[in-house]
Amino acid sequence: MSHIAVLETEVVRAFEGVAIATFFDGTVGAGGHASAILTAHPEIERYLACDRDPRAHLLAKKRLEPWGEKVEFIRGSYSSLEHFLDERKIARIDGFLIDIGVSSMQLDEAERGFSFRFEGPLDMRMDPSGGVTAESIVNSYPEKELEQIFREYGEEWQARKAAQAIVSARKKRPLRTTAELAKLLESVLHRGKIHPATKVFQALRIVVNDELGELERGLDAAIRRLSNGGRLAVISFHSLEDRIVKHRLKDQEYRMPKRSREAVGCLKILTKKPIEASIEESRKNPRSRSAKLRIAEKVGRES
Ligand SMILES: C[S@@+](CC[C@H](N)C(=O)[O-])C[C@H]1O[C@@H](n2cnc3c(N)ncnc32)[C@H](O)[C@@H]1O
To answer: What is the DSSP pairing of strand 22-25 with strand 46-51?
Structure first.
């Protein structure tokens, strides 16, 4: 399935009225949001299109061809934003977007190991060139640690059961594939509305890709490097991520503390509540159902 950009109209609206010279797209994926933003902002001089997955760039390059050299592809993690800017001697960005989570392409490529619906190696790395795989976590982490990961990052109430089952299965032989793990979880966990492997797979993916750490570091970097009047937009897909975004923005909100002459913070939060997909979009693109968009503008002080 090709990837449909979520909340595309809302993302374009997030940057309305901002004169953008340099834009940093931290998760360019298939380039859906990128093409919409580039169309809406012909004034953009440099569009930095970052993704840690080399395969995403193949698709995005084709889609973003009409914009020629304005678009610079960066292979890496968006949390390294400042490094990428320094390398290019860019001081400030006027727009920052991240649309985090896995893409439909990643889910559909069985050999990437993201989906319990397809048989593939237990990999789950967005950047296949390095780092720990889901297989090594599942086969080597102590039971207590697995339980904690499933509880914390999967919000799985049956975390202990899942961890126990994994540890007892791997004593016989290591778990190598998505199908082996999915079958094991199906056999021990209660069935609800979602597949019993959903939350454990989510938790493993978050740990393999350090998704929450990426988000925290990426947001802090973006806030530091946004120009005055510049905006950032973040689309997240589960409550753990949305909580981080909400608190990170709130911590940096521009305000005048009581009994103080000096304002603190440098952001105006433009979404008191996150923007969610319309009924129509949710119907057309099920992936959009859990998406939450938060937007903020840099004001007053430059840190
Ligand atoms: C949901 S897709 C983005 C789709 C894109 N906005 C579009 O319109 O096509 C998420 C993408 O973010 C990438 N990604 C996830 N975490 C990342 C990170 N920390 N740094 C860079 N890219 C990341 C994934 O590899 C994936 O291609």
So the answer is: parallel
Say how many CA atoms lie within 13 Å of 92 toward its Cβ: 12
pLDDT tens digit string along 197-236? Answer: 999 999 999 999 999 999 999 999 999 999 999 999 999 9
- Around ligand 1, the residues with Cβ closer than 6 Å are 3, 5, 26-27, 29-33, 50-53, 56, 77-79, 99-101, 103, 126, 214
**How many A from CA of 266 to the centre of ligand 1?**
26
Q: How open is the CA angle 294-63-37, to the nearest 5 degrees? A: 35
pLDDT in the model for residue 1 = 52
pLDDT in tens, 15-65: 999 999 999 999 999 999 999 999 999 999 999 999 999 999 999 999 999
pLDDT in tens, 175-185: 999 999 999 99
Q: Describe the strand order of the beta sheet including 46-51 as a list of residue ranges.
A: 71-75, 46-51, 22-25, 93-99, 226-236, 292-298, 267-269
Give, rounded to a whole angstrom, the gap between the first and last alpha carbons of the chain.
42
Ligand 1 center to 176 CA (angstroms): 26
Q: Where does the pLDDT of residue 79 fall: very low under 50, low under 70, confident under 90, or very high at 90 and above?
A: very high
Q: Which residue has the tokens 């890709």?
A: 209
Q: Whose CA is nearest to atom 25 of ligand 1?
A: 53
Q: What residue ranges define each of the domains in the chain, with the CATH number in brackets?
A: 8-103+211-298 (3.40.50.150), 128-208 (1.10.150.170)
Q: What is the spatial distance between Cα 126 and Cα 132, in angstroms, rounded to a whole number?
A: 11
31 Cα to the center of ligand 1, angstroms: 10
